[in-house]
Amino acid sequence: MVLIMVELTTILSKMIFRHLNFETKIKWVNSISIILIHLLAILGFFTFDYITKWRTFLWGLFVGGLGGFGVTAGAHRLWSHRSYKAKLPLRIFLMLCFSIAGQNNLYNWVRDHRVHHKFSETVADPHNANRGFFFSHVGWLMMKKHPQVIEKGKKINMDDLFEDPVAAFLIRNFWWLKLMMCFFAPSVVPHVFWGETWYWSVYSQAVCRYVLNLNFTWLVNSIAHMWGNRPYDKAISPSENFVVSLLSIGEGWHNYHHTFPWDYRAAELGKFSVTTFWLNLFAKIGWAYDLKIPSDNLVRMIAENRGDGTYVANNHLAHAEIHDLDINGNIRLRRT
């Protein structure tokens, strides 16, 4: 059965790539494995009994949320953009959560993301949206990088990651942490604690939940770079997309993020973001601090000069001034 599915995925991958014009060679091992696990996940979505296995389903949502938080608050906002600082307990928690997501090694993740911001929508962008939805969503992981991506990536300063002992530990021990936190631990819990079968314990967590975690992150690279309004800078592709923000727990306000990448919220105050909600709670207990935000005057000025005109009409903070975070981590507002 497995051999048949591998053969089918090989044929399917060749059909997909045959009609698309790619600039680099295909990584067949990556391509086949990605297609295969997606086919298995689709089968699982349709055969899983959501009624009788509700605890396993809820566990998958919980684990998926932890993995998403590790990507958004950890790899993205902390280690890629340094938009806030985190105490040791929070950094350890983020390390474990990022391992649950099971994505690339933190070093590669951060380097590629910094290159993406610096050379967005050019041939040096690892997931250049100008090459189409498929490429920006997953295709970039299924083929070798464009030479410009490699060249620009070598020039990115990554010293700060190794200055953080938690990030350095994660980089050195990435594979065993990924195997333990992404596949083993989530699969053991349903069987041990409520008697789920080993088949569905592994299938639901190591395949279905994992695939959803991957795609919710990939949506930021694809859909959030193509569809939505651009209130802050109409000259760039990243867009504001509520659906992507919902699925990626706060990363879909992408036009704002690319305009103000140092903002720890990755969105303007008032926009839906689960990640920001939790970071604010961690700020209250002192685990997160030095949370960076731009002034409201700066946001308003840039939106009025560069935006597509939707900022004043749609943003409920168009007449508010952000002063700063108070001692409890709350943002103070004063109506103008």
From TrEMBL:
CDD domains: Delta9-FADS-like. One of its GO terms (cellular component) is endoplasmic reticulum membrane. One of its GO terms (molecular function) is stearoyl-CoA 9-desaturase activity. Its cofactor is Fe(2+). The keyword DNA-binding does not apply. InterPro entries: Acyl-CoA_DS. Its main location: membrane. It comes from the Eukaryota. Keywords: Fatty acid biosynthesis, Fatty acid metabolism, Lipid biosynthesis, Lipid metabolism, Membrane, Oxidoreductase, Transmembrane, Transmembrane helix. It is found in: Membrane. Belongs to the fatty acid desaturase type 1 family. The histidine box domains are involved in binding the catalytic metal ions. This is Acyl-CoA Delta(11) desaturase-like isoform X1. It comes from Agrilus planipennis. The lineage of its organism: Eukaryota, Metazoa, Ecdysozoa, Arthropoda, Hexapoda.
